[in-house]
Hints:
The protein has helices at about 1-25, 230-240, and strands at about 25-30, 30, 60-70, 75-80, 100, 110-115, 120-125, 135, 150-155, 155-160, 165, 165-170, 185-190, 200-205, 215-220. The chain is of the alpha+beta class. It has one domain (about 30-225). Strands 2, 5, 6, 7, 10, 11, 14 and 15 form an 8-stranded antiparallel β-sheet that branches. Strand 3 (about 60-70) and strand 4 (about 75-80) form a beta hairpin. The protein is globular and about 40 Å long. Residues about 1-20 and about 225-255 have low confidence and may be disordered.
Amino acid sequence: MKMRIMSAMLAGLALLFFHTAVYASYTNITTYDGYGSGTGWYGGQENNEVEPGAATGQGWDLEGFYFNEDDNSLALVGGFDLVDGGTDLGYSWVQSGDIFLETNDQNDFYEYVLSMDFTNKEYTVYDISGGGSTYTETHNGPAAMAGLPLNYTGGGTEVTGSMPFTYVANLTDSEIVGDLGAGPHNAAFVDMSFLEPNTNFGSFFTITCGNDVLTGAGTTSGGQVPEPATILLLGFGVAALGARARKKKLNSAKEI
């Protein structure tokens, strides 16, 4: 029994060091969403901010997009419970949306969507650059943020098939990225390697009521992407040693 407990403790320490090593390589790519007004929770920052008129507090906060050029992974971070949504806040109907990507500044449309299944922690990437794809929209909540793209419902071309994503919950600031302040913080990590090397992208995410909108801008790496097993080995090695700000209007109320 003692051996099992010790093994579990060592595994936990290794995982903690692995997470610390990985998160340290993420860069904050969050951009101003264009909706700030005044100061405090309604200010122009993104962390500790919601849209003007919305309910405030860590539980509603979408805090940032972070990108790792070493493995082309994108982290979506928030105090908002990305898996269970607003259930613990008394608003179970408020849930997470999908991640929309813009890769071409020459038009007004999103080119890709990462259709997120937060319950099963899986996602599928669709190419929606040809138009004609459909999505649900945000409700007209206290922040009056109705009509924003929320969840992909159909159209486009499937790019990746269903893939798992990593989700971590209830982390302190020191356990994740180190620049967000008081937690708890939750994060979903997705692979952006389906994009060509050196692709500029803008990212967009929100929740059912539009209480907070999150945008980011980054560039995929042009170098060789490490294999997942290599990254894992590096993590345990450490343990052993110790868009734009706001997306343009879409081409119609229901089409992307």
